[in-house]
Amino acid sequence: MSICFNCFKEYDVELGVCPYCGQSLDDIKHEEYLIAPGTILVDRYIIGNAVGSGGFGNVYKAWDKKLETIVAIKEYYPQGVVNRIPGTQEVILVSSRNRKEFEYGKARLLQEARNVAKFSAHKNIVDVFEFFEANNTSYMVMEFLHGMPLNKYLKESGGKLESQ
């Protein structure tokens, strides 16, 4: 038995595909700069598939063992400034001259998490469950929402948002 890194249900790997969500083992692509699926972060979160990556960081789908639910984890990982030691979770600076910028960014992610958490009762703002530092970087744990990225929505809707 194995766990699906998309829906986090157990299934027989001999099937080659998760019978619950259809995730194929062949669909799992792991880039060295990402935390490997199956890694356990701070003894609580099982890292699943990466759902986004950009200049500021990476976002992963993860299983929260304590709350027994799927969450999203945002990792501060500024591309071009840091790297990951292959096979580990540890983030390292590419150059020590970027240390001040990197430390500022780590603190900024934690401050963003604090600010977003203050508005957890608002229906249009994602809930933040936890934020912390580990692996020489910072993380924000949020509710996982199904949907499409804003840039894709704007493209499909002619570049406009509906006001309510």
Could you characterize what this model shows?
- The chain is an alpha+beta fold and about 160 residues long.
- Helices cover about 15% and strands about 30% of the residues.
- It has two helices and ten strands; from the N terminus they run ββββββββαββα.
- The strands form three sheets. The chain has a six-stranded antiparallel β-sheet, with helices on one face.
- The longest helix has 19 residues.
- It is globular.
SSE-based structural type? alpha+beta
What gap, in angstroms, lies between the N and C termini? 47 Å
Strand order, main sheet: write it out: 3-4-5-6-10-9
Order of helices and strands: EEEEEEEEHEEH
Overall shape: globular
Q: What Rg, in angstroms, do the CA atoms define?
A: 17 Å
Number of helices: 2
Let me know the average pLDDT.
Answer: 90
Percent helix: 10-25%
Unreliable segments (pLDDT under 50, ≥5 consecutive)? none
Give the number of DSSP strands.
10
Query: In this structure, how is the largest beta sheet organized?
Result: 6 strands, antiparallel
* Percent range for β-strand residues: 25-35%
Briefly characterize the structure:
This protein is α+β, with helices and mostly antiparallel strands and 164 residues long.
Topology:
Blueprint: E1 2-3, E2 10-11, E3 40-41, E4 45-53, E5 57-64, E6 69-76, E7 82-84, E8 91-93, H1 99-117, E9 128-134, E10 137-143, H2 150-156
Antiparallel strand pairs: 1-2, 3-4, 4-5, 5-6, 6-10, 7-8, 9-10
